[in-house]
TrEMBL record:
Species of provenance: Nepenthes gracilis
PANTHER family (alphabetical): MITOCHONDRIAL OUTER MEMBRANE PROTEIN PORIN 5-RELATED (PTHR11743:SF23), VOLTAGE-DEPENDENT ANION-SELECTIVE CHANNEL (PTHR11743)
Subcellular location: Membrane
Recorded GO CC terms: mitochondrial outer membrane; pore complex
Family classification: Belongs to the eukaryotic mitochondrial porin (TC 1.B.8.1) family.
Protein name, per record: Mitochondrial outer membrane protein porin 2-like
Amino acid sequence: MINGPGLFSDIGKRAKDLLTKDYISDQKFTVSTCSDTGLALTSTAVKKGGLSTGDVTAQYKYRNTVIDVKVDTESNITTTFTITDIIPSSKAIASFKLPDYTSGKLEVQYLHHHATFTAAAILNKSPAIDVSATIGTPTIAFGAEAGYDTTSGNFTKYTAGIGVTKPESSASIILGDKGDAIRASYLHHLDQPKRSSVVGEISRKFSTNQNTFTVGGSYAIDQLTLVKAKLNNHGKLGALLQHEVIPKSVFTISSEVDTKALDKAPRFGLSLALKP
């Protein structure tokens, strides 16, 4: 695809991933296999509290087409077709879920050197439409997104943002919730190999005058082991340890503690992902 400003969803993504990705509060086990024919199978089992769920996903790649079929423990079947470069620098994604016949969705993405555009629609009698666009370069991007309900004739959301990305840092400001919330984040890599990083994020909801400030960081102890931690002004402290037990197979243990209520038991999460 074209190297440009990226999608609107990419604005602030690096900071968000450092603060949220791989922090889990349940037990998760994933096994993946693949073949030379382009077929890949992934089985996932999740235990959260006393409830166990799971799913199996099959993915098949052929030239510029990817087909994903997912079956979960409730007998829901989700199928997704992804086709790239129908026209240059484009991607089309179509998905539907059975037995829910009203869950079909069609999304089109177009990426250019200095602009990107996406449009998505729910395929039912009264479709909801989401559109987003960004302009800029890989270094700086301005973007906006909006959602429209064709039944009520009202906008369900509108969001605007700006992101600045450099090799050693990234920053973003996003105005969302129809102008009722603002979020600003900054991530900085402390060394050239990006083994250690720090991040700060502040958000404010105007209707409730509520502010949330979160700081976090990550450090690669070696090529196989990563530690992360985060803390917000409400006293929520999270930490995780991630280790590559064998090539491409990762074990993760994470926990969260409410430092303002130490009488409550901390939450723990475990994850093991085995890949060929």
